[in-house]
Design brief:
With 212 residues, the chain is mainly α. It contains 8 helices and no strands.
Length: 212
């Protein structure tokens, strides 16, 4: 026990040991504080990661839902546009994606186009007036239901009709162009080629060779 007693001879050494021990205790306290700080930061980071994951997950489902809605709308528009362009009886009744009032509107719109198809000077203003709508109203309504503008549908129907005429009649290219409302045969040929990937003359020659 003597070595632990403070004497004049060893008091300085004991004081140094005490100071060293005190410094070590402070270091331990600092290390403990640092570990606590790291632990708190780690907890915060874990919560932030969890929140970020939840946000990303929510965004994924929101984007997926929007995509599904958009895709469904696009499929509906394509079905309506395809049915509109096809030349067959009772087509409007088959447009199940549309309600009765919209089917009635599209049926009337198609009839107006068929009545005026051969008129190369037909304007959307005049067509809208016959439908009792302004040009802007007609554009928005048709675009919303088909994904195409009235002018695009008109061109599609003209080209579809021209395709049938070239296939089933002996009319010349110029006569067919005029019949479906193209004032310039050259422009008609360009549109026909862009739509069917073949010139009207080549298509007509293929049809004639099939008849022989």
């Amino acid at each position: 026990m003597k070595s632990f007693l403070a004497t004049p001879e060893n008091c300085d050494a004991i004081a140094l040991q005490y100071q060293d021990l005190e410094a070590k205790m402070k270091n331990l306290d600092q290390i403990s504080d640092t570990l606590d700080s790291y632990s708190e930061v780690s907890r915060i980071q874990k919560w932030m990661l969890l929140i970020a994951f939840i946000v990303v997950l929510i965004l994924f489902f929101v984007i997926y839902y929007i995509y599904k809605v958009y895709r469904k709308k696009l499929q509906k528009q394509k079905a309506v546009a395809r049915g509109f362009i096809e030349n067959k009886e009772g087509w409007a009744a088959e447009l199940t994606p549309l309600d009765e009032s919209d089917r009635y509107f599209m049926d009337r719109f198609k009839k107006k186009i068929l009545e005026n198809m051969g008129n190369a000077d037909m304007k959307m203003d005049d067509l809208g007036a016959e439908m009792q709508l302004s040009k802007v109203q007609l554009y928005r309504k048709v675009k919303a239901m088909t994904g195409k503008t009235p002018a695009e549908l008109l061109k599609e129907m003209r080209l579809k009709k021209a395709y049938t005429l070239l296939q089933e009649t002996d009319m010349t290219i110029s006569e067919v162009a005029a019949k479906v409302g193209f004032a310039l045969p050259g422009y008609f040929s360009s549109c026909f080629r862009k739509r069917f990937d073949v010139l009207p003359t080549d298509f007509r020659n293929k049809q004639l060779s099939k008849r022989e």
